[in-house]
Design a protein that fits this description.
- InterPro entries: UPF0167.
- This is CbrC family protein.
- It is a single chain.
- The chain has 6 helices and 7 strands.
- Strands 5-6-7 form a 3-stranded antiparallel sheet. A two-stranded antiparallel sheet has the order 1-2. Strands 3-4 form a two-stranded antiparallel ribbon.
- The protein has about 180 residues and is α+β, with helices and mostly antiparallel strands.
- The chain has 2 domains: about 100 residues, no CATH class; about 80 residues, no CATH class.
- The structure holds zinc ion (2 copies).
- The site of one zinc ion has 6 residues, from loops.
């Protein structure tokens, strides 16, 4: 069934991430029951009675009708206007403790893979290294504390894993309540 869902370049598996789920629910935009519904963030000043189907996300109609965005543009630096619009207005967001944001690599938005713990993150050493480096820059100067935080990801705090759409490198940021 999922083969018929629209493809999202910057969020290729929204079923795995839980952003889109099977549901017999009427879409707040097209008013049709398509069998699938979007469950994550949408920012708008308008009142929206219900949730959206993946098709109204993909073609931009939900974002346009309600003048909203699925993801904040925070962090999307150095990408083209076109990419910025595709990520914020035509790509499903995801569930996170803090406001979700997108990572950038090779001057393009990266594709969101999912929320992961240490084991899954360690399978991509480059992402683990990059996250550690970012956290040191953020003020984590105690290496033991940093090591403890990273190895306990998945137990409280988690990592949001992305994959560069150009070079394939994995990258991540940490999310905590
Ligand atoms: Zn719809
Ligand atoms: Zn890259």
């Amino acid at each position: 069934m999922s083969a018929s869902l629209p493809f999202f370049r910057y969020h290729p598996d929204p079923l795995a991430s839980g952003s889109i789920r099977a549901a017999a629910e009427t879409c707040a935009c097209c008013k049709r029951n398509r069998g699938w519904i979007y469950t994550a963030t949408f920012y708008t000043a308008h009142e929206v009675n219900g949730r959206f189907c993946p098709w109204c996300i993909s073609d931009g109609s939900a974002a346009e009708r309600f003048a909203g965005e699925f993801t904040d543009s925070y962090g999307l630096d150095g990408v083209s206007e076109e990419v910025l619009h595709e990520v914020t207005r035509r790509t499903p967001g995801f569930h996170a403790w803090q406001d979700p944001h997108w990572l950038v690599h090779c001057q393009d938005a990266a594709a969101f893979v999912g929320e992961v713990g240490y084991t899954e993150l360690a399978a991509h050493p480059e992402a683990l290294d990059q996250l550690g480096t970012d956290m040191r820059l953020d003020g984590w100067h105690d290496e033991n504390q940093l090591e403890h935080f990273l190895t306990h990801l998945g137990d409280g705090a988690t990592a949001m894993l992305f994959r560069c759409t150009v070079c394939g490198t994995h990258l991540a940021y940490a999310d905590a309540s």
